[in-house]
Write a structure and sequence with these properties.
The chain is an alpha+beta fold. Helix content is 26%, strand content 39%. The chain has a four-stranded antiparallel sheet. The longest helix is centred in the last third of the chain and has 11 residues, at 50-60. The radius of gyration is 11 Å and the shape is globular. 23% of the residues are buried.
Length: 77
């Protein structure tokens, strides 16, 4: 079974749509939705292992221009 997580993303002002489009192109991103509330996007990600989830967040998602902050929630059940 693949490791899954939800990543809550805060973007720079006015960048939510561009960030969503960039995230959707990353391998391992299953879905990205713009939402209301404290965060601007909720992103569902999947990888083979939890370590690969971490690499996707730290090396790919954090590198997308316009991403200001993230909070990652790994699925445990």
């Amino acid at each position: 079974m693949a490791a899954r997580a939800y990543v809550l993303v805060r973007t720079e002002v006015g960048k939510a749509k561009a960030v969503k489009e960039a995230l959707q192109r990353l391998p391992g991103v299953a879905a990205a939705d713009i939402v209301t509330g404290d965060y601007d996007l909720i992103v569902a990600i999947e990888q083979a292992t939890p370590e690969e989830l971490g690499r996707l967040v730290m090396e790919q998602i954090h590198g997308v221009p316009g991403v200001a902050a993230t909070s990652t929630h790994v699925v445990v059940g």
